[in-house]
Amino acid sequence: xxxxxxxxxxxxxxxxxxxxxxxxxxxxxxxxxxxxxxxxxxxxxxxxxxxxxxxxxxxxxxxxxxxxxxxxxxxxxxxxxxxxxxxxxxxxxxxxxxxxxxxxxxxxxxxxxxxxxxxxxxxxxxxxxxxxxxxxxxxxxxxxxxxxxxxxxxxxxxxxxxxxxxxxxxxxxxxxxxxxxxxxxxxxxxxxxxxxxxxxxxxxxxxxxxxxxxxxxxxxxxxxxxxxxxxxxxxxxxxxxxxxxxxxxxxxxxxxxxxxxxxxxxxxxxxxxxxxxxxxxxxxxxxxxxxxxxxxxxxxxxxxxxxxxxxxxxxxxxxxxxxxxxxxxxxxxxxxxxxxxxxxxxxxxxxxxxxxxxxxxxxxxxx
Length: 367
Ligand SMILES: Cc1cc2nc3c(=O)[nH]c(=O)nc-3n(C[C@H](O)[C@H](O)[C@H](O)COP(=O)(O)OP(=O)(O)OC[C@H]3O[C@@H](n4cnc5c(N)ncnc54)[C@H](O)[C@@H]3O)c2cc1C
Known about the structure:
By secondary structure, the chain is of the alpha+beta class. It has helices at residues 15-26, 51-56, 62-69, 106-117, 166-171, 279-296, 302-325, 329-342, 346-356, and strands spanning 8-11, 32-34, 48-49, 71-73, 75-80, 83-89, 101-103, 123-124, 127-135, 138-145, 148-152, 156-159, 175-192, 199-204, 207-215, 218-223, 237-254, 258-259, 262-264, 270-271. Helix 1 (15-26) packs parallel to helix 4 (106-117), helix 1 runs parallel beside helix 6 (279-296) and helix 3 (62-69) packs antiparallel against helix 4 (106-117). 42% of the residues are buried.
């Protein structure tokens, strides 16, 4: 049995690891958090913070910082080749106060989580976990810091070390699933020709292209074809390209989130398409639930509580990704001619937002 204040090592200072640190600290623990990178990240992967995440990060004070730094997106416009098909209004998000999606680049979200930690809990940068062994239920870890090696034996290890998780591999836990067939394109661009502060999706079958506002005239472009900029609708004027890239997406999930006192959270446990912006939010949820279970001494139920949630999200996101990016006749006809009528009533929008914003998953019992 683990004593009252165990030694806890968190591997990875992404959103999941930082949330684990913030939530454990708030509950009276003093976790150590290590990160292989030299310092805070600068790239902005996830942009959307959903109401469930804001609820979870409220008690630590992180939400107040995030809301101050980000902006509130109030609508999602779905366009066809001949104009607007329909509009989802975030006033239909079924939350008593947070009827918006908060937009903030992931690097800034991480910075505010680090600031929330404050005090004595600092990220150990340039510190890499190179090996993990589990013997008689006790983990032995090797760390590498500026060429020096350190061996430690914490009571609890949280592997929040991303999709290529070395913790997951060391535990021999499989990551089953598959990659989608084609590459996706990504770019951050300054542009004219789109309503600012709102999200826009263009269904230009066979290509789908999304514009997520970052700030002012700066938008993130995500496209289900690798050269995103080739598909920008003609009425949108590209003023400046900040950066562009391509990526291949997969949907995968572990069969168990834990082995002995070693746990997985975030992308180390599940990955899926960026459609719907659930990835970072789901990892933050995992980490917060795990901190709550550690405090209660009930970590045995972690997999049972979190696996079904991510499984459901993966299934929904996979279906949506296939449906939205399908260029088959029936799917295209349905999206352009029937969907605009189906999603018009507020009660349908409320149902759509419930799952899109994380509010359809079990509510955290501690809030
Ligand atoms: C282009 C793109 C757009 C996205 N958009 C969204 C979105 O809009 N909304 C959303 O919710 N999600 C989005 N996501 C997904 C989101 O970025 C991830 O789900 C999120 O970053 C996962 O957080 P994490 O903390 O689990 O892992 P990561 O952010 O990957 O963090 C893991 C950390 O662990 C560190 N690490 C790894 N191995 C070791 C080791 N051995 N020792 C020490 N440190 C280690 C890594 O350096 C890294 O910092 C997007 C992803 C991409 C690629």
